[in-house]
Amino acid sequence: MEIQKFISANRAAAIRTPNELLKMAYGLQIEEIEPPIDVENISKKIENVKLSKNINSFERLSRSGEIKVQRDTGEQFIEIWINPTHHTNRQRFTIAHELGHLFNDILPHINDINYKDEFTDNDEIMFKRAGEQKLEEYLANSFAADLLMPKEIISRKVNEIIQVAEEQKQKLFLNEVIQTLCEMFQTSYQAMEIRLKNLGYID
Hints:
The chain is built from nine helices and four strands, in the order H-H-H-E-E-E-H-E-H-H-H-H-H. It has 203 residues and is α+β, with helices and mostly antiparallel strands.
């Protein structure tokens, strides 16, 4: 599904939730959007945000992604870097995670040069167990899950899967439902399983 809208810096500064970002990017209500969410093109449509996958140092290979406000070039912009050697679905989650940092941590303080304006993420930082993560990383992960797997679209697709199974008199198995949703939303099995648990579909 094509991203229709360019998001100006002023409009981006007003965004606080993934749903607000999705509505602004697609120009649609959440229920009208078809998965997968095109997070790469969403990031490219935000004014003053540049997405990069260039590896200019081996040190970067140990990272999943970075986001940084570049202020030293005479032109202030925000660079999101994603490790291109990771699986496509992992890259998608990392982009969504860095967008979480953008809207949660960076844009609200963009004019404060004393505020943290750089985040470097790897597995250890992003995927620590609950209770061990820094709050900013927990919130960025929550933003990413909400952005990639909006509950309204999950609900619609789950109902569609159930309806098709009932019409065809097929028995549904949990692992097959999760795998079907993974393919629709282009996420990892683990990410979808966690999302479904958080939404109450799985005990």
